[in-house]
């Protein structure tokens, strides 16, 4: 059976997504993403962050986030169910009480005491089983876990650049320039490639290519005409008319 990290890595590679693109889209540091793919969960700030980051990463890749979190709990969190098991042995004493003198009245008293003891142990066992889930099932309302998350979000800079990834289904012409006339790339693209800049303008020859901007796929309608895009930070991709599309060969 595949491990958690292996499934995350295979899903990301299948979608041809860079770690940097995932970091930009999910706001999770690249070193934590790599730690989850390598199942080095001890490198993350704590179990609560592991489950929160794991859930966010799985949802971004289209995986079953609930299933991966449950699998993490089963494999990497301590099992507390065994704490109540050693106390089940007192039940065996019932069979031996009847042979003693005066057993007609001692037997029922011992039986009642055992029932009361087992009831107390059952309640303690239930409490021990439920306490980890209660601490981790809903981390958002907890003030102790919310504050570190807020501080980490405040430390993250606002995106000031564009990450463009083009994965062609077949060889296609591609022109990428900065918007100020500086050519970033011009030629025939046959393999996936990533470009970065404060602003990018794109002229794509074939619409069958997969285009992702900051980790998010840009929907391109099928057609025979080339497609032009204007890409800026914190803005949706804007379509360019035929006259507006860049001409890197000029």
Keywords summarizing the entry:
250 residues, alpha+beta, 434 Repressor (Amino-terminal Domain), 5-stranded antiparallel β-sheet, 4-stranded antiparallel β-sheet
Q: How would you explain this protein's 3D organization?
A:
With 250 residues, this protein is α+β, with helices and mostly antiparallel strands. The protein has 3 domains: 4-77, lambda repressor-like DNA-binding domains (434 Repressor (Amino-terminal Domain), Orthogonal Bundle), CATH 1.10.260; 81-136; 162-240, no CATH class. 42% of the residues lie in helices and 18% in strands. It has 8 helices and 9 strands. A 5-stranded antiparallel β-sheet has the order 3-2-5-8-9, with no helix packed on it. It has a 4-stranded antiparallel β-sheet with strand order 4-1-6-7, with no helix packed on it. A hairpin with a 2-residue loop joins strand 6 (210-213) and strand 7 (216-218). The longest helix has 34 residues, at 103-136. The two termini are 55 Å apart. The relative contact order is 0.11.
Fold blueprint:
Elements: H1 4-14, H2 19-26, H3 30-37, H4 47-61, H5 65-76, H6 94-97, H7 103-136, H8 143-155, E1 162-167, E2 172-177, E3 183-189, E4 193-197, E5 200-204, E6 210-213, E7 216-218, E8 227-231, E9 238-240
Antiparallel strand pairs: 1-4, 1-6, 2-3, 2-5, 5-8, 6-7, 8-9
